[in-house]
Amino acid sequence: MSENTGAACAAPLQTYNDAVAWINNLIPFGIRPGLSRIELLLSKLGDPHKHLKFIHVAGTNGKGSTCAFLTSTLRQGGYDVGTFTSPYITKFTNRFQYNEEDIPEDTLLQLANKLKPLVEEVAATELGSPTMFEVATALAILYYAEVCYPDVVVWETGLGGRLDVTNVVTPIISVITNIGFDHTDILGDTIEQITSEKAGIIKPGVPVVTTVEQPEAIRIIRETCAKKKSTLYVAGEQFTYEQLEVNKNGQRFHYNGPFRELDVELTMQGKHQSANAACALMTLEVLRQYMAFYMEEEDLKKGFHRAFWAGRFEKVSDDPLLILDGAHNPEGAETLARTIKDLYADRKLILMMGMLENKHHKSYLQHILPLVDTLILTEPDFRRKMDAAQLKNMVEELRPSFAKPNLDIIVEPSWKNALSLLKLRTEADDLGIVSGTLYLIADVRASLLHQTDSEKGW
Questions:
Q1: HSE (CB half, 13 Å, CA atoms) of 192?
Q2: What order of strands is seen across the sheet that includes strand 101-102?
Q3: Which residues form the signal peptide (predicted)?
Q4: Does the pLDDT value for residue 144 go beyond 90?
């Protein structure tokens, strides 16, 4: 190593912004599935993850909401909870929460400085540099194992499961919310292939809860559990949930599981949130029954009622009525369409959307186009954005079969101008929705809620 390189290694990061910039500068190393770099990095730290209890949550959609239900309810029950999720909506620190509060900026800086020389040591090996997500994951583990010591960590996968960086941990319970088509370039393009990747989080003897619906996906999860001798709880088999009521303030569903049954009220909208909440409730019930996580029924109910997750059918304005929803794949669009029909079927829909490349946009559009009166196509402020004009070509192709006869299409690449148009076009009795990639949702949300410290990224 040259003197210059040594000096660079030794120089500590001076500020929070330096630390975030250093971590984000690892983005060009991309998504490189595999656990060898994170395992080496954590071994240099003394394997701190082995001292923590994790609830590992995988799935195509609903992971974040399920994590929110688990966190809120465990907190309500008096437990100290770490929550690691991605991508973030407002600020880099959102990823690393303890008792629903972001990691303090100075703590993140200290931990980044602890990690930096070790990351450089790993980068000097044949394994190459750890990625941004690997360093963020290591930072989360350090935060929980050495700074705040939660009773349990709600631990969301980044992508897939089997080779996802978060799979370096052995949890006390594994959760698979659902299976759909997303990241098919990495996870495979059949339900079976995607399920095999997600089922990779299942560990020997660790119980599994799932709300997966496709028979072929359930078969793979069941076979994996049998091989690993893991107890499996499947929605529709070991537990059921039934929506009882839905209105503009929330919804109520009936849960019936092996250990109790109860009615649960949610403020989060959409039938899919009943599925996510039931999944979280079954998970908590296993923890209560077998791992001494004691929870009063009243706390369970309060925890589910107060749970919130930004950017998921989130109302941000009443006049005009504007809703943000980070649906960005076919299953997300289907869910969004069903929620609109359940709650706002009588309103004209003005939809603003922006996407990243490499997604199943045609299938997405087939679900949502039949409801749209005015479509504003824009572009997220992100390096892998999809060209709005390209999106328009796709819409034109689908228009004869799926769109309303008088669909008005506007192409406005600037998301700021597109948002002004949305506000202008959404009249008193209309519904304005911003949907698509969370990178767009993050910017729009910060703008509408006047969040001056908003950042954006993975």
A1: 3
A2: 101-102, 96-98, 81-84, 152-156, 54-58, 173-176, 208-210, 232-234
A3: none
A4: yes
CA distance linking residue 84 with residue 68, whole number of Å: 10
Task: Report the amino acid identity of residue 420.
Answer: S
Question: Residue 384 half-sphere exposure, CB side, CA atoms within 13 Å?
Answer: 12
**Residues of the chain above pLDDT 90, percent:** 76
> Is residue 354 within 8 Å of 440, Cβ to Cβ?
yes
Cα 365 to chain center, whole Å? 21
Residue 46 tokens read as 């003394």
pLDDT of amino acid 1: 37
Q: How far is CA 337 from the centre of its chain?
A: 19
Among 292, 240, 286, which Cα is nearest to 261's?
A: 240
Measured CA to CA, the distance from residue 56 to residue 48 in angstroms comes to: 17
Q: Which comes out higher in pLDDT, residue 249 or 44?
A: 44
Q: What is the mean pLDDT of the chain?
A: 91
CA-wise closest residue to 119 among 109, 134, 103, 140: 134
The CA distance from 425 to 411, in Å, is 14
- pTM, entire model: 0.91
Beta strands in 276-348 (DSSP E): 314-318, 321-325
Identity of the amino acid at 286: V
Please give the torsion angle defined by the CA atoms of residues 154, 160, 166 and 167, in that order, rounded to the nearest 10 degrees.
110
Q: Can you read off the two tokens belonging to residue 134?
A: 């690997």
Determine the Cα–Cα distance for residues 273 and 267; give it in Å rounded to an integer: 10
Burial of 374 (0-12, 13-18, 19+ CB in 10 A): buried
Residue 393 reports pLDDT greater than 50 = yes
Closest CA to 178 of 86, 271, 63, 313: 63
Asked if 447 contacts 364 with a C-beta cutoff of 8 angstroms, the reply is no
